[in-house]
Amino acid sequence: MDIKAMPVASPDLTHEQQAFREAARDFAQSEIAPFAAHWDAESEFPREAIRKAGELGFCGLYTDERAGGTGLTRLDAAIVFEELAAVDPSTAAFISIHNMATWMLTSHATSAVRDHWGPKLASGQSLASYCLTEPGAGSDAGSLKTRAMKDGDHYVLSGSKAFISGAGATDMLVVMARTGEDGPRGISAFAVPADAQGIGYGRNEEKLGWHSQPTRSVSFDGVRVSADHLLGREGDGFKIAMKGLDGGRLNIAACSLGAAQGALDAARRYMGERRQFGKKLAEFQALQFKLADMATDLVAARQMVHTAARKLDAGSHDATIWCAMAKRFATDAGFAICNDALQIHGGYGYIREYPVERLLRDCRVHQILEGTNEIMRVIVARHLLNTEEELR
Ligand SMILES: Cc1cc2nc3c(=O)[nH]c(=O)nc-3n(C[C@H](O)[C@H](O)[C@H](O)COP(=O)(O)OP(=O)(O)OC[C@H]3O[C@@H](n4cnc5c(N)ncnc54)[C@H](O)[C@@H]3O)c2cc1C
Predict the structure, then answer these.
(1) What residue owns the CA closest to ligand 1's atom 17?
(2) pLDDT over 70 for what percent of the chain?
(3) Is the CB of 63 under 6 A from ligand 1?
(4) What is the CA radius of gyration of the chain?
């Protein structure tokens, strides 16, 4: 593709970013869109499509090139995730979580672990899960109880994790476990091969959406990992987990943008086709206004996500706050836009023949995971009340 020859449709994006968008859109149309409804209906994990995404560099988008990644920015990654999610938010979101875990491992692992796993993960040949949540520790993740006891040149992990995306289908688990005192400072992060002895997997949870990726509990019963699989230093785990989530929240927000764009496009098409009272739906001003509001909210959410991504790329001290605001805003807007698109489809929106009900089901969980939207408000409010900084 001749990047320089491309029209500048979005003046705030570079020619390269528009090229990534085109590449992601082409891939989404050819390798995901034709199969997404089937994967959803059959709860089929699209391993082969994810491998092909890896060939394009989508499995290590913002992982450093020296670790085998594509070495792009968070904004570039958000652009790619949005395009993939426009046809299949579930598969896009799995790829985004894999990207987050891959970045965490390659940024904090010992060189031996990074060199062994980095290229495999970034190419999509191997896949990773992020293991923070526990049955008794969700929003209050700092209270997690999974233990990692030092035993010579190994750590021994015991405990259990809940709601782990991809679990059972992934090869590497990035696990947060307690090595010290109560609270966030006693937590460390580990790279744990998913087939290590003593790891057990629960049943695939039956969910409202996200059917194309498994969600399972994971138990650790005396799992031994070599001490060089510690990420960072002892006690760094919670910080590493939260740094991972800054990017993760942007990615999930971008997946909501994609779902919303897919739903908006479907509603627009449908309004031009469906006739009632002798007119096209497109002629009813009430629906025109709804469509206009949907588009306005989507553009505002996209600006918010891109601004937060630029903050994270620039290493701004308040990037975490911006990522939390963007995640809250874009995931709420994304769900509302999908819901309005479903309403515009009337009864047809509720049946599987049209894609809107799947987009709606898939993006509902974005308001819950990687920190619920209530927790995003906690992060923003804490900043507002504890500092005098303006958010600009
Ligand atoms: C499909 C799916 C996939 C997931 N994938 C992963 C994964 O890959 N890895 C992983 O580690 N986790 C994963 N999660 C877990 C997810 O991150 C948690 O579900 C989420 O953080 C919320 O925790 P909880 O479910 O225990 O809810 P709780 O923490 O029990 O919260 C219940 C309600 O109380 C609210 N609440 C809690 N505390 C406060 C507060 N201080 N102020 C106001 N409201 C509050 C919450 O916002 C929520 O509405 C996944 C979850 C789902 C559903």
Answers:
(1) 369
(2) 97
(3) no
(4) 21
Confidence of residue 2 (pLDDT cuts 50, 70, 90): very low
Nearest C-alpha neighbor of 86 from the set 26, 17, 9: 26
Three-state secondary-structure class, residue 22: helix
Cα separation of 173 and 229, whole Å? 11
Tokens at residue 4, please?
Answer: 């320089």
pLDDT at 7: 43
How far is residue 341's CA from residue 344's CA, in Å, rounded to a whole number?
5
From residue 140, alpha-carbon distances to 100, 316, 338, 388 in Å are 20, 26, 30, 26
The Cα-based distances of 165 to 97, 262, 375 in angstroms read 8, 23, 20
Other Cβ atoms less than 10 A from the Cβ of 158: the count is 16
Residues 211-247: pLDDT tens digits? 999 999 999 999 999 999 999 999 999 999 999 999 9
CA separation for the pair 108, 126 (Å, rounded):
18
Which string of b and e fits 32-58 if b means at least 16 CB within 10 Å? bbebbbebbeeeebbeebbeebbebbb
**Could you tell me the distance, in angstroms and rounded to a whole number, from the CA of residue 369 to the centre of ligand 1?**
6
- The first and second tokens of residue 20, run together, are 């990534």
- Kindly state the tokens that stand for 255: 């997946």
Q: Among residues 366, 382, 340, 368, which one has the least CA distance to residue 92?
A: 366
**Active-site residue flag, 370:** yes
Which pLDDT score is estimated for 10? 67
Residue closest via CA to ligand 1's atom 48 equals 372
Please give the domain boundaries of the chain with CATH numbers for all domains. Answer: 3-122 (1.10.540.10), 128-235 (2.40.110.10), 238-386 (1.20.140.10)
CA distances from 121 to 14, 100, 129, 133, 243 (A): 28, 11, 11, 22, 19
